Structures are given as C-alpha cells and as structure tokens.
C-alpha cells in the first residue's frame, strides 16, 4: 500500500481518529446512561406515586394529594376519548410529552377500571439535561482538539530519530568511505533496527562496489601486458616481407581487434578510477583531433564494406578540450555500432563546437526499443558482428559520468542518428 501522507501526519490522524472514536463512544454512553437512568428512576417514582394516590387517597373517596408540579387525569376505561388529545394515545408506562412549551413526564396505567395519566413537570430537569449534553459535546470537541495538539507534539518527538537517521543516510554520499556505524547512536527499538539494517546494507554495498572496482582495475591492469604482446606480434607480422596475401586480411582484423580491446581496457580503467571529470591527469584533446584519429581508424573498414564515409568538422571543434579516453571510447563505439548495422549507403561523423553526430543508413531501431538498447547485453534484432551488446551501455555510462547527453533518433536515410552533447570544457591554448 502506498502512503501519500508523511509519517507525522499519519500519527496525528491516528491520534485524532482514536480520540474521536473513544470520545464519541464515551459521550454517547453518557447520554444513553442518563436517559436510561432517568427513565427507570422517574418511571418507578411515578408508578409508586400513582399507586399511593389510588390506594390511599382515592379508595377512601377522597381527592388525590398531588405535589405542586404534578397533575392527574383519570377517566373510566370506556371514556378515554374525554382526555386531552395529546394524552389519549400515550402507551402504558413511562413517556415524555410537551404541553404549552413545557416538558412533562407522563405515566399511564389502568387501575380498578380507570385510565390514569399522571404528569410531572420536568422543565427544570430538561434544561439541566440539555446543559449536560452541551457539556458532553463541548468536552468531546475539546478532547479531539487536544488529541490533535498532543498527536502533533508527540509525532515530532516520535519521528525525530527517523528524520535524524534519514539525514545521516542522505549525507553518506561517499559510500566507499569508512564511516562509523549508525546503529550505536540509537536505542534498541524499531528505529535502532532500521539503523542496523542501513548499516548492513551499506556494508554490503561498500563491499560489492569495492570488489567491482578492484576487479575492473586489476583486470584492466593485467590485460595490458598480453595486449602489448599481441600488438607487437601483429606489428612484426605486418613487417614480414613474405607474408602470404591471404593472411593480410586476418592480420588486419587481429590488429584492429587488439586495438579496440586496448581502448576498452583504458576506458574501463578510467571508469574504475575516475569520479566524474575530477581526473585532471587524463589526456585532453579537441573534438577535431579525436575525429581525425577515428577517421584513420574506421574509414578503411567502412569503405572496404562498400559504404561511403562522410566527415564534417566545424572550425569551432578546434577550440575546446575534452577528456580524450572517454571521448574516443564514445565515438569509437558509436562508429563500430554503425558499421555493424549498415549494409549499404553511408556512415557520417559530424563534429560541432561542443558535440558530434554519428549517423548511418542502416536498419535503424524502432522507437519502442531505443531505451532498451542502452542496457547491457542488449542487441538489436538485426544484430551482426561479434559484439556482446555492451557498446551503447558503455556510451551511456561514460556520458552519465561526464555529464554529457546521448540521444538516439532516426537519420534521414532511415538508420540511426546518435547526438552527443558535451556541454563546455576548457579552451585549447
């Protein structure tokens, strides 16, 4: 169940509802008890008074002796119609009637062949009873108001540890930093258990992140040596004068794959060690420089596939400096993706002052699948090549880390168009 109210408001509402229910039941109970006691006591008193008058006063032929606030009506049973209209249909026993804006208790009985109606003025008691009901109502409303105030005051005290815990957790931005545990600062109650759960979760998160970073760093570092050996071997083979022509194609693919793997290793190592753009030691380059290097890297492969290579570099692309390893990795992955998914037409690299566009005339990606393509290990339905579906995921990770933005849309030829907006960087000297 999703709650849209804050915890403090829910506590206040709980206090008010509890007081409303308990106070309401208590108030109704008071009214019911007063009414029941009134009916039973007055009914017994009037019954005794009527029997006294009939048996003691009227049986001897005398007149009944009445208190000043009482009146007695009696007629033979066959002549009940002679009674006043408001007294004819009263049921036997106790009743309450109103007469000339005055309130009376009425007791109806049939004794010795006569129909008796004994009235007792109860206007004063009715006024006191109404006052009692008003007092009960005012007390009920005051109790609800006090419950709201008390609930508000207690809610602040109750949730104060929760608010404090939330602030402490929110301030722990550096998850890998060694910080003291939260649980010892709290009592051994529900909030203390919550703090302990946060400690356990943060410890597991620290351990997982540390393992991931160490793994990435160690793997990236250890792969450099075999990659250097592979690159050196490829260079030696290329320099061999009697290399068979049929071996040149596989050798070129091996050289390109080794170079791509070396770039990925450098990118992963930079991602493992760098937090945002705080790595001031990383090499910097302009967009134009990176674009020209990527042209040297990819133009031959693009044209060998029968595609047209288009390069457009704006003069402003020579002004700003960028994080070269990340920029090269983003541009290279997008060009590799375009080459894998384009069979005819062109691949275009358009470089501006603070961003670039990679466009192709390939199969394209349906709009409903574009967001999923940036997830790890996701490939298009027309996937080709030997990729694992990590290229676009790596592009998004780098862009998020650097504060860049990547947008996927349709090209003019129906393929893909990747727009990379880099923001602002340092101006080249």
From TrEMBL:
Its EC number is 2.7.13.3. GO terms for molecular function: kinase activity. Keywords: Kinase, Membrane, Phosphoprotein, Transferase, Transmembrane, Transmembrane helix, Two-component regulatory system. The keyword Lyase does not apply. It is an enzyme of class 2 (transferase). Residues 218-426 form the Histidine kinase domain. Residues 156-210 form the HAMP domain. It catalyses: ATP + protein L-histidine = ADP + protein N-phospho-L-histidine. It comes from the Bacteria. It is found in: Membrane. InterPro entries: HAMP_dom (IPR003660), HATPase_C_sf (IPR036890), HATPase_dom (IPR003594), His_kinase_dom (IPR005467), HisK_dim/P_dom (IPR003661), HisK_dim/P_sf (IPR036097), Sig_transdc_His_kin-like_C (IPR004358), TCS_sensor_his_kinase (IPR050428). The chain crosses the membrane at residues 12-34, 131-155. PANTHER family: HISTIDINE KINASE, SENSOR HISTIDINE KINASE YKOH. This is histidine kinase. It comes from Pseudomonas benzopyrenica.
């Amino acid at each position: 169940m999703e709650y849209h109210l804050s915890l403090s408001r829910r506590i206040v509402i709980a206090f008010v509802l509890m007081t409303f229910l308990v106070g309401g039941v208590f108030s109704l109970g008071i009214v019911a008890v007063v009414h029941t006691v009134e009916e039973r006591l007055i009914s017994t008193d009037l019954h005794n008074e009527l029997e006294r008058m009939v048996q003691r006063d009227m049986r001897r032929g005398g007149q009944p002796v009445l208190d000043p606030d009482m009146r007695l009506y009696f007629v033979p049973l066959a002549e009940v119609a002679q009674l006043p209209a408001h007294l004819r249909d009263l049921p036997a026993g106790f009743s309450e009637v109103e007469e000339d804006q005055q309130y009376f208790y009425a007791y109806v009985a049939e004794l010795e062949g006569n129909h008796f109606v004994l009235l007792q003025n109860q206007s004063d008691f009715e006024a006191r009873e109404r006052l009692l009901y008003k007092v009960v109502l005012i007390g009920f409303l005051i109790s609800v108001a006090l419950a709201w105030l008390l609930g508000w005051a207690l809610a602040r005290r109750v949730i104060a540890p929760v608010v404090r815990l939330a602030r402490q957790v929110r301030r722990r931005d550096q998850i890998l930093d060694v910080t003291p545990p939260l649980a010892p600062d709290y009592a051994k109650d529900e909030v203390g258990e919550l703090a302990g759960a946060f400690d356990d979760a943060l410890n597991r998160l620290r351990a997982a992140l540390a393992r991931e970073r160490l793994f990435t760093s160690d793997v990236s570092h250890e792969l450099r040596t075999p990659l250097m050996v592979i690159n050196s071997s490829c260079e030696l083979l290329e320099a061999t004068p009697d290399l068979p022509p049929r071996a040149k194609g596989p050798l070129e693919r091996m050289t390109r794959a080794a170079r791509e793997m070396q770039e990925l290793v450098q990118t992963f190592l930079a991602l493992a060690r760098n937090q945002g753009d705080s790595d001031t030691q990383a090499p910097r380059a302009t967009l134009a420089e990176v674009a020209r290097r990527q042209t040297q890297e990819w133009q031959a492969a693009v044209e060998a596939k029968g595609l047209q290579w288009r390069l457009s570099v704006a003069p402003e692309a020579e002004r700003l400096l960028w994080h070269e390893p990340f920029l090269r990795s983003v541009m290279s992955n997008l060009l590799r993706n375009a080459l894998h998914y384009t069979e005819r037409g062109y691949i275009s690299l358009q470089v501006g002052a603070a961003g670039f566009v990679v466009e192709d005339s390939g199969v394209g990606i349906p709009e409903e699948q574009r967001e999923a393509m940036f997830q790890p290990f996701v490939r298009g339905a027309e996937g080709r090549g030997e990729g694992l579906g990590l290229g676009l995921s790596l592009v998004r990770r780098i862009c998020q880390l650097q504060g860049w933005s990547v947008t996927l849309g349709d090209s003019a030829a129906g393929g893909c168009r990747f727009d990379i907006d880099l923001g602002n960087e340092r101006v080249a000297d």
